[in-house]
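SAMPLE LOG
Freezer: B-3
Tube label: C17
Construct: single chain, 483 aa
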Amino acid sequence: MDNTASGTAQKALKLNLDAITYGTFAEIGAGQEVARWFFSVGGAAGTVAKTDSAYDMMVSDAVYGPTQRYVSRQRLEAMLEHEFVLLRDRLGPGRGDSKCFFAFADTAATSGYQKPTNGHGWVGVRFQTRPREEPSEIVVHAHLRDSTAARQQESLGVLGVNLIYGAFYRRKDPADLIASLMDELSRERIDLDMIKLSGPAFPGVDNRLMSLQLVERGLTDAAMFTASGEVVQPSDVLHKKPILVERGSFRPATKLTLNLLQRAREQFLQEPSVRGQQPVVLAEMTLHNFTPEPDVDHTDFLARADILRALGFDVLVSRFGPYYQLADYLAGCTEGMIGIAVGLPAFRQVADEKYFTDLPGGVLESVGRLFKRAVKMYVYPTRDRDTGQIYALEQAPIPPPWHHLRALLLEIGRIEPIRGYDESYLSIRTPDVLALIQRGDPSWEQMVPAAVAEIIKAENLFGWRSRQESSTETRPILSGRNR
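STRUCTURE (predicted):
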Protein backbone atom coordinates (compact mmCIF):
# COMPACT_ATOMS: atom_id res chain seq x y z
CA MET A 1 0.00 0.00 0.00
CA ASP A 2 1.14 3.53 -0.76
CA ASN A 3 2.12 5.64 2.24
CA THR A 4 2.63 9.05 0.67
CA ALA A 5 0.12 10.99 2.79
CA SER A 6 1.85 13.17 5.38
CA GLY A 7 -0.53 15.63 7.02
CA THR A 8 -3.30 14.55 9.37
CA ALA A 9 -6.08 15.61 6.99
CA GLN A 10 -4.39 13.81 4.09
CA LYS A 11 -4.10 10.63 6.13
CA ALA A 12 -7.75 10.69 7.21
CA LEU A 13 -8.90 11.34 3.63
CA LYS A 14 -6.72 8.55 2.23
CA LEU A 15 -8.28 6.11 4.70
CA ASN A 16 -11.77 7.35 3.83
CA LEU A 17 -11.13 6.80 0.12
CA ASP A 18 -9.62 3.35 0.64
CA ALA A 19 -12.40 0.98 -0.34
CA ILE A 20 -11.20 -1.82 1.94
CA THR A 21 -10.84 -0.17 5.41
CA TYR A 22 -13.98 -0.02 7.53
CA GLY A 23 -14.34 0.36 11.27
CA THR A 24 -15.65 1.85 14.48
CA PHE A 25 -14.42 4.61 16.78
CA ALA A 26 -14.96 4.42 20.54
CA GLU A 27 -13.56 7.39 22.48
CA ILE A 28 -13.90 8.19 26.18
CA GLY A 29 -12.77 11.23 28.12
CA ALA A 30 -11.54 13.72 25.53
CA GLY A 31 -14.41 14.03 23.09
CA GLN A 32 -14.44 12.30 19.73
CA GLU A 33 -11.36 14.00 18.39
CA VAL A 34 -10.15 11.14 16.19
CA ALA A 35 -13.51 10.46 14.56
CA ARG A 36 -13.88 14.20 13.99
CA TRP A 37 -10.98 14.17 11.53
CA PHE A 38 -12.62 11.51 9.37
CA PHE A 39 -15.89 13.42 9.24
CA SER A 40 -14.26 16.79 8.58
CA VAL A 41 -12.22 15.73 5.52
CA GLY A 42 -15.16 14.16 3.69
CA GLY A 43 -15.87 10.66 2.46
CA ALA A 44 -16.40 9.28 5.97
CA ALA A 45 -19.12 6.92 4.77
CA GLY A 46 -16.39 4.84 3.18
CA THR A 47 -14.61 4.24 6.49
CA VAL A 48 -16.82 4.93 9.51
CA ALA A 49 -19.28 2.23 10.54
CA LYS A 50 -20.02 3.75 13.97
CA THR A 51 -18.73 6.24 16.50
CA ASP A 52 -19.42 5.99 20.22
CA SER A 53 -18.51 7.71 23.49
CA ALA A 54 -19.59 5.91 26.66
CA TYR A 55 -18.62 8.95 28.76
CA ASP A 56 -20.68 8.20 31.85
CA MET A 57 -18.92 5.64 34.07
CA MET A 58 -22.09 3.59 34.61
CA VAL A 59 -22.71 3.48 30.87
CA SER A 60 -19.07 2.54 30.27
CA ASP A 61 -19.31 -0.31 32.78
CA ALA A 62 -22.55 -1.52 31.23
CA VAL A 63 -20.98 -1.67 27.77
CA TYR A 64 -17.42 -2.79 28.49
CA GLY A 65 -17.61 -4.36 31.95
CA PRO A 66 -16.56 -2.96 35.35
CA THR A 67 -13.05 -1.66 35.97
CA GLN A 68 -11.19 0.01 38.81
CA ARG A 69 -9.56 2.61 36.55
CA TYR A 70 -11.27 4.10 33.53
CA VAL A 71 -8.10 5.49 31.96
CA SER A 72 -6.17 2.23 31.87
CA ARG A 73 -4.85 -0.45 29.58
CA GLN A 74 -7.48 -2.82 30.96
CA ARG A 75 -10.29 -0.50 29.87
CA LEU A 76 -8.74 0.08 26.46
CA GLU A 77 -8.37 -3.65 25.82
CA ALA A 78 -12.01 -4.23 26.82
CA MET A 79 -13.11 -1.49 24.42
CA LEU A 80 -11.11 -2.92 21.52
CA GLU A 81 -12.39 -6.44 22.14
CA HIS A 82 -16.03 -5.40 22.45
CA GLU A 83 -16.07 -3.08 19.45
CA PHE A 84 -14.16 -5.35 17.07
CA VAL A 85 -16.22 -8.44 17.86
CA LEU A 86 -19.45 -6.45 17.53
CA LEU A 87 -18.39 -5.04 14.16
CA ARG A 88 -17.23 -8.38 12.81
CA ASP A 89 -20.34 -10.24 13.98
CA ARG A 90 -22.75 -7.66 12.61
CA LEU A 91 -21.09 -6.89 9.28
CA GLY A 92 -18.95 -9.97 8.66
CA PRO A 93 -21.63 -12.04 6.91
CA GLY A 94 -22.34 -9.32 4.36
CA ARG A 95 -19.02 -7.46 4.01
CA GLY A 96 -16.40 -9.71 5.52
CA ASP A 97 -15.04 -10.84 2.14
CA SER A 98 -14.40 -7.32 0.89
CA LYS A 99 -13.46 -5.29 3.98
CA CYS A 100 -10.59 -5.09 6.43
CA PHE A 101 -12.38 -4.31 9.68
CA PHE A 102 -10.83 -2.22 12.44
CA ALA A 103 -11.81 -0.92 15.86
CA PHE A 104 -10.14 2.20 17.16
CA ALA A 105 -10.44 3.14 20.86
CA ASP A 106 -9.03 5.67 23.26
CA THR A 107 -9.65 6.46 26.91
CA ALA A 108 -8.07 9.66 28.19
CA ALA A 109 -8.00 12.15 31.04
CA THR A 110 -7.25 15.72 30.00
CA SER A 111 -6.82 18.89 32.04
CA GLY A 112 -9.98 20.20 33.68
CA TYR A 113 -11.39 22.38 36.41
CA GLN A 114 -10.71 19.69 39.01
CA LYS A 115 -7.44 18.51 37.46
CA PRO A 116 -5.32 21.38 36.09
CA THR A 117 -2.38 19.10 35.30
CA ASN A 118 -1.11 17.29 32.23
CA GLY A 119 -3.33 14.54 30.93
CA HIS A 120 -2.65 11.05 29.69
CA GLY A 121 -4.44 8.40 27.71
CA TRP A 122 -4.44 4.92 26.24
CA VAL A 123 -4.89 4.63 22.49
CA GLY A 124 -5.24 1.48 20.40
CA VAL A 125 -6.40 -0.07 17.17
CA ARG A 126 -7.37 -3.67 16.41
CA PHE A 127 -7.36 -4.32 12.67
CA GLN A 128 -7.27 -6.82 9.82
CA THR A 129 -4.68 -6.59 7.04
CA ARG A 130 -6.75 -8.90 4.80
CA PRO A 131 -10.46 -9.75 4.81
CA ARG A 132 -11.35 -12.55 7.24
CA GLU A 133 -7.87 -12.49 8.79
CA GLU A 134 -7.39 -12.74 12.55
CA PRO A 135 -6.87 -9.21 13.90
CA SER A 136 -3.61 -7.55 14.85
CA GLU A 137 -3.31 -4.83 17.47
CA ILE A 138 -1.31 -1.74 18.41
CA VAL A 139 -1.61 -0.27 21.92
CA VAL A 140 0.04 3.01 22.95
CA HIS A 141 0.22 5.04 26.16
CA ALA A 142 0.60 8.81 25.80
CA HIS A 143 1.27 11.68 28.19
CA LEU A 144 -0.49 14.85 27.03
CA ARG A 145 1.78 17.82 27.76
CA ASP A 146 -0.22 20.76 26.41
CA SER A 147 -1.34 23.32 28.97
CA THR A 148 -5.06 23.30 28.08
CA ALA A 149 -7.65 20.58 27.62
CA ALA A 150 -8.45 21.83 24.13
CA ARG A 151 -4.84 21.47 23.01
CA GLN A 152 -4.56 18.04 24.63
CA GLN A 153 -7.70 16.92 22.78
CA GLU A 154 -6.22 18.21 19.55
CA SER A 155 -2.97 16.28 19.98
CA LEU A 156 -4.90 13.12 20.88
CA GLY A 157 -6.88 13.46 17.66
CA VAL A 158 -3.70 13.73 15.59
CA LEU A 159 -2.13 10.76 17.37
CA GLY A 160 -5.22 8.63 16.70
CA VAL A 161 -5.19 9.37 12.98
CA ASN A 162 -1.44 8.65 12.83
CA LEU A 163 -2.03 5.33 14.61
CA ILE A 164 -4.78 4.10 12.29
CA TYR A 165 -2.87 5.24 9.22
CA GLY A 166 0.29 3.56 10.46
CA ALA A 167 -1.55 0.29 11.09
CA PHE A 168 -2.73 0.09 7.49
CA TYR A 169 0.12 1.74 5.56
CA ARG A 170 3.30 1.57 7.64
CA ARG A 171 3.06 -1.71 9.49
CA LYS A 172 5.71 -3.47 7.39
CA ASP A 173 8.41 -1.33 9.01
CA PRO A 174 7.62 -1.11 12.74
CA ALA A 175 10.38 1.43 13.35
CA ASP A 176 8.93 3.69 10.66
CA LEU A 177 5.44 3.16 12.09
CA ILE A 178 6.61 4.26 15.53
CA ALA A 179 8.31 7.37 14.16
CA SER A 180 5.19 8.30 12.17
CA LEU A 181 3.06 8.43 15.32
CA MET A 182 4.63 11.83 16.00
CA ASP A 183 3.81 13.34 12.60
CA GLU A 184 2.60 16.93 13.20
CA LEU A 185 3.31 16.49 16.93
CA SER A 186 6.33 17.15 19.17
CA ARG A 187 7.74 16.09 22.53
CA GLU A 188 6.54 19.41 23.95
CA ARG A 189 3.00 18.25 23.24
CA ILE A 190 3.01 14.49 23.68
CA ASP A 191 5.19 11.74 25.13
CA LEU A 192 4.81 8.07 24.14
CA ASP A 193 6.26 5.76 26.80
CA MET A 194 4.70 2.42 25.93
CA ILE A 195 3.82 0.59 22.72
CA LYS A 196 2.88 -3.00 22.00
CA LEU A 197 2.48 -4.56 18.57
CA SER A 198 0.86 -7.98 18.27
CA GLY A 199 -0.86 -10.29 15.79
CA PRO A 200 -0.17 -11.58 12.27
CA ALA A 201 0.70 -8.10 10.94
CA PHE A 202 3.85 -8.10 13.08
CA PRO A 203 5.56 -11.49 12.72
CA GLY A 204 8.76 -11.75 14.71
CA VAL A 205 8.45 -8.33 16.33
CA ASP A 206 10.13 -8.14 19.76
CA ASN A 207 8.34 -5.49 21.80
CA ARG A 208 11.45 -4.93 23.90
CA LEU A 209 13.00 -3.49 20.76
CA MET A 210 9.90 -1.37 20.25
CA SER A 211 10.46 0.05 23.75
CA LEU A 212 14.02 0.83 22.77
CA GLN A 213 12.75 2.57 19.64
CA LEU A 214 10.59 4.91 21.72
CA VAL A 215 13.64 5.98 23.72
CA GLU A 216 16.15 5.94 20.87
CA ARG A 217 13.95 8.14 18.68
CA GLY A 218 13.32 10.61 21.49
CA LEU A 219 9.59 9.92 21.80
CA THR A 220 10.07 9.45 25.55
CA ASP A 221 12.84 9.58 28.17
CA ALA A 222 12.28 6.06 29.51
CA ALA A 223 10.42 2.86 28.68
CA MET A 224 10.03 -0.33 30.68
CA PHE A 225 9.58 -4.05 30.23
CA THR A 226 9.32 -6.83 32.79
CA ALA A 227 11.54 -9.85 33.32
CA SER A 228 9.11 -11.86 31.17
CA GLY A 229 9.58 -9.43 28.29
CA GLU A 230 6.14 -7.81 28.64
CA VAL A 231 6.17 -4.10 27.84
CA VAL A 232 4.47 -1.97 30.49
CA GLN A 233 3.69 1.66 31.18
CA PRO A 234 6.21 2.58 33.92
CA SER A 235 3.81 4.46 36.22
CA ASP A 236 1.45 1.48 36.26
CA VAL A 237 4.19 -0.65 37.83
CA LEU A 238 5.99 1.97 39.92
CA HIS A 239 3.04 3.94 41.32
CA LYS A 240 3.39 4.39 45.11
CA LYS A 241 6.02 1.62 45.29
CA PRO A 242 9.50 1.81 46.83
CA ILE A 243 12.03 1.41 44.02
CA LEU A 244 15.58 0.08 44.02
CA VAL A 245 17.55 0.56 40.80
CA GLU A 246 20.99 -0.39 39.55
CA ARG A 247 22.44 1.23 36.44
CA GLY A 248 24.84 -0.81 34.36
CA SER A 249 25.98 -1.86 30.93
CA PHE A 250 25.14 -5.49 31.84
CA ARG A 251 27.47 -6.63 29.06
CA PRO A 252 27.29 -9.09 30.69
CA ALA A 253 25.92 -8.99 34.22
CA THR A 254 28.56 -10.44 36.56
CA LYS A 255 28.62 -11.92 40.04
CA LEU A 256 29.63 -8.49 41.32
CA THR A 257 26.63 -6.93 39.50
CA LEU A 258 24.25 -9.34 41.18
CA ASN A 259 25.88 -9.22 44.62
CA LEU A 260 25.82 -5.41 44.60
CA LEU A 261 22.07 -5.39 44.00
CA GLN A 262 21.34 -8.20 46.45
CA ARG A 263 23.23 -6.56 49.29
CA ALA A 264 21.70 -3.15 48.51
CA ARG A 265 18.24 -4.73 48.55
CA GLU A 266 18.85 -6.26 51.98
CA GLN A 267 19.69 -2.85 53.39
CA PHE A 268 16.90 -1.11 51.46
CA LEU A 269 14.33 -3.46 53.01
CA GLN A 270 15.43 -2.33 56.48
CA GLU A 271 14.62 1.31 55.81
CA PRO A 272 11.70 2.42 58.04
CA SER A 273 9.68 3.69 55.07
CA VAL A 274 10.24 0.45 53.11
CA ARG A 275 9.90 -2.15 55.86
CA GLY A 276 7.06 -4.60 55.20
CA GLN A 277 6.79 -3.71 51.50
CA GLN A 278 8.06 -5.42 48.37
CA PRO A 279 10.06 -2.90 46.35
CA VAL A 280 10.26 -2.85 42.58
CA VAL A 281 13.84 -3.81 41.65
CA LEU A 282 14.99 -2.34 38.35
CA ALA A 283 18.01 -2.72 36.10
CA GLU A 284 18.46 0.52 34.17
CA MET A 285 20.13 0.54 30.78
CA THR A 286 20.81 4.06 29.60
CA LEU A 287 21.57 4.89 25.97
CA HIS A 288 24.80 6.41 27.29
CA ASN A 289 25.96 2.82 27.88
CA PHE A 290 25.35 1.84 24.26
CA THR A 291 27.30 2.63 21.13
CA PRO A 292 28.20 6.25 20.41
CA GLU A 293 26.68 5.96 16.94
CA PRO A 294 23.12 7.30 16.39
CA ASP A 295 21.66 3.81 15.98
CA VAL A 296 21.91 1.42 18.90
CA ASP A 297 23.11 -2.08 18.10
CA HIS A 298 19.81 -3.87 18.57
CA THR A 299 21.29 -7.36 18.68
CA ASP A 300 23.57 -6.23 21.48
CA PHE A 301 20.62 -4.68 23.32
CA LEU A 302 18.61 -7.90 23.16
CA ALA A 303 21.60 -9.88 24.41
CA ARG A 304 21.68 -7.69 27.53
CA ALA A 305 17.91 -7.95 27.90
CA ASP A 306 18.12 -11.75 27.73
CA ILE A 307 20.76 -11.72 30.48
CA LEU A 308 18.55 -9.58 32.73
CA ARG A 309 15.58 -11.81 31.97
CA ALA A 310 17.60 -14.82 33.13
CA LEU A 311 18.23 -12.99 36.43
CA GLY A 312 14.56 -12.05 36.82
CA PHE A 313 15.03 -8.26 36.60
CA ASP A 314 12.58 -5.73 35.27
CA VAL A 315 14.32 -3.33 32.89
CA LEU A 316 14.13 0.44 32.46
CA VAL A 317 15.58 1.73 29.18
CA SER A 318 16.38 5.44 29.40
CA ARG A 319 18.03 8.50 27.90
CA PHE A 320 19.26 9.67 31.30
CA GLY A 321 22.82 10.79 31.88
CA PRO A 322 23.56 11.98 35.45
CA TYR A 323 21.90 10.12 38.29
CA TYR A 324 19.79 13.15 39.24
CA GLN A 325 17.90 12.75 35.94
CA LEU A 326 17.05 9.16 36.86
CA ALA A 327 16.01 10.20 40.37
CA ASP A 328 13.81 13.01 38.99
CA TYR A 329 12.04 10.58 36.69
CA LEU A 330 11.44 7.90 39.33
CA ALA A 331 10.19 10.50 41.82
CA GLY A 332 7.55 11.45 39.26
CA CYS A 333 6.31 7.84 39.25
CA THR A 334 6.18 7.15 42.99
CA GLU A 335 5.87 8.73 46.40
CA GLY A 336 7.84 5.85 47.89
CA MET A 337 11.51 5.74 48.76
CA ILE A 338 14.04 5.43 45.93
CA GLY A 339 17.26 3.47 46.40
CA ILE A 340 20.14 3.65 43.92
CA ALA A 341 22.70 0.83 44.07
CA VAL A 342 26.13 1.88 42.76
CA GLY A 343 29.77 0.92 42.88
CA LEU A 344 32.27 3.31 44.40
CA PRO A 345 33.59 4.51 41.00
CA ALA A 346 30.05 5.61 40.05
CA PHE A 347 29.65 7.45 43.35
CA ARG A 348 32.89 9.35 42.73
CA GLN A 349 31.30 10.73 39.56
CA VAL A 350 28.61 12.40 41.70
CA ALA A 351 31.33 14.72 43.04
CA ASP A 352 33.27 15.17 39.78
CA GLU A 353 32.80 18.64 38.35
CA LYS A 354 33.55 17.62 34.76
CA TYR A 355 30.18 15.83 34.55
CA PHE A 356 28.13 18.89 35.49
CA THR A 357 29.51 21.77 33.44
CA ASP A 358 26.03 22.30 31.96
CA LEU A 359 24.52 23.09 35.38
CA PRO A 360 24.93 26.64 36.73
CA GLY A 361 25.41 25.22 40.22
CA GLY A 362 27.73 22.41 39.15
CA VAL A 363 28.19 19.57 41.62
CA LEU A 364 26.17 21.25 44.35
CA GLU A 365 23.17 21.67 42.07
CA SER A 366 23.38 18.07 40.83
CA VAL A 367 23.58 16.72 44.39
CA GLY A 368 20.66 18.91 45.46
CA ARG A 369 18.55 17.58 42.59
CA LEU A 370 19.62 13.98 43.21
CA PHE A 371 18.77 13.89 46.92
CA LYS A 372 15.93 16.41 47.11
CA ARG A 373 13.34 13.68 47.66
CA ALA A 374 13.46 10.34 49.50
CA VAL A 375 16.52 9.14 47.57
CA LYS A 376 19.40 7.17 49.02
CA MET A 377 22.52 5.68 47.47
CA TYR A 378 23.96 2.34 48.55
CA VAL A 379 27.66 2.19 47.63
CA TYR A 380 29.63 -1.02 47.00
CA PRO A 381 33.40 -0.96 47.73
CA THR A 382 36.07 -1.33 45.08
CA ARG A 383 39.57 -2.81 44.84
CA ASP A 384 42.41 -0.68 43.50
CA ARG A 385 43.69 -2.45 40.42
CA ASP A 386 47.33 -1.49 40.98
CA THR A 387 47.73 -1.91 44.74
CA GLY A 388 45.01 -4.46 45.50
CA GLN A 389 43.78 -2.27 48.37
CA ILE A 390 40.05 -2.32 49.09
CA TYR A 391 38.35 1.04 49.45
CA ALA A 392 34.96 1.42 51.09
CA LEU A 393 32.78 4.50 50.88
CA GLU A 394 34.07 6.14 54.06
CA GLN A 395 37.81 5.82 53.29
CA ALA A 396 37.96 6.19 49.51
CA PRO A 397 40.14 9.06 48.25
CA ILE A 398 37.96 11.95 47.04
CA PRO A 399 39.58 15.23 45.95
CA PRO A 400 38.98 18.19 48.27
CA PRO A 401 36.72 19.95 48.94
CA TRP A 402 34.25 17.24 47.92
CA HIS A 403 35.29 14.91 50.75
CA HIS A 404 33.29 17.31 52.95
CA LEU A 405 30.25 16.66 50.76
CA ARG A 406 30.68 12.92 51.30
CA ALA A 407 30.85 13.46 55.07
CA LEU A 408 27.65 15.51 54.96
CA LEU A 409 25.74 12.94 52.89
CA LEU A 410 26.88 10.17 55.24
CA GLU A 411 25.82 12.15 58.30
CA ILE A 412 22.33 12.94 56.99
CA GLY A 413 21.80 9.36 55.80
CA ARG A 414 21.62 9.99 52.04
CA ILE A 415 24.48 7.60 51.25
CA GLU A 416 25.37 4.34 52.96
CA PRO A 417 28.16 1.80 52.44
CA ILE A 418 27.04 -1.65 51.33
CA ARG A 419 27.90 -4.16 54.03
CA GLY A 420 28.29 -7.93 53.76
CA TYR A 421 29.88 -7.76 50.31
CA ASP A 422 31.89 -10.64 48.84
CA GLU A 423 35.55 -9.61 48.69
CA SER A 424 36.30 -12.18 45.99
CA TYR A 425 34.07 -10.31 43.54
CA LEU A 426 35.90 -6.99 43.79
CA SER A 427 38.39 -7.92 41.05
CA ILE A 428 35.61 -8.63 38.53
CA ARG A 429 35.27 -5.95 35.87
CA THR A 430 32.67 -6.18 33.13
CA PRO A 431 34.98 -5.14 30.23
CA ASP A 432 37.47 -7.83 31.28
CA VAL A 433 34.74 -10.47 31.33
CA LEU A 434 33.55 -9.42 27.88
CA ALA A 435 37.09 -9.64 26.51
CA LEU A 436 37.50 -13.15 27.91
CA ILE A 437 34.20 -14.25 26.33
CA GLN A 438 35.20 -12.94 22.93
CA ARG A 439 38.67 -14.54 23.17
CA GLY A 440 37.14 -17.90 24.01
CA ASP A 441 38.87 -18.03 27.41
CA PRO A 442 36.64 -20.25 29.62
CA SER A 443 37.67 -18.48 32.83
CA TRP A 444 34.87 -15.94 32.29
CA GLU A 445 32.32 -18.53 33.41
CA GLN A 446 33.57 -18.24 37.00
CA MET A 447 32.87 -14.50 36.98
CA VAL A 448 29.17 -14.57 36.10
CA PRO A 449 26.14 -16.26 37.71
CA ALA A 450 25.52 -19.78 36.44
CA ALA A 451 22.24 -18.74 34.79
CA VAL A 452 24.06 -16.03 32.87
CA ALA A 453 26.80 -18.39 31.66
CA GLU A 454 24.17 -20.86 30.53
CA ILE A 455 22.22 -18.35 28.45
CA ILE A 456 25.37 -16.80 26.93
CA LYS A 457 26.47 -20.22 25.69
CA ALA A 458 23.00 -21.37 24.65
CA GLU A 459 22.34 -18.24 22.59
CA ASN A 460 25.90 -17.37 21.50
CA LEU A 461 25.74 -13.92 23.08
CA PHE A 462 28.50 -11.28 23.15
CA GLY A 463 30.59 -13.08 20.52
CA TRP A 464 30.91 -16.34 22.46
CA ARG A 465 31.79 -19.50 20.56
CA SER A 466 32.48 -22.97 21.83
CA ARG A 467 36.14 -24.08 21.71
CA GLN A 468 35.52 -26.18 18.62
CA GLU A 469 33.77 -23.34 16.79
CA SER A 470 36.41 -20.84 17.91
CA SER A 471 39.14 -22.95 16.34
CA THR A 472 37.44 -22.87 12.91
CA GLU A 473 35.81 -19.45 12.99
CA THR A 474 37.25 -16.33 14.58
CA ARG A 475 34.68 -13.77 13.50
CA PRO A 476 32.37 -12.88 16.44
CA ILE A 477 28.60 -12.98 15.92
CA LEU A 478 28.19 -9.50 17.38
CA SER A 479 29.99 -6.33 16.50
CA GLY A 480 31.54 -6.04 19.96
CA ARG A 481 30.99 -2.25 19.89
CA ASN A 482 30.36 -0.49 23.14
CA ARG A 483 30.79 2.91 24.79
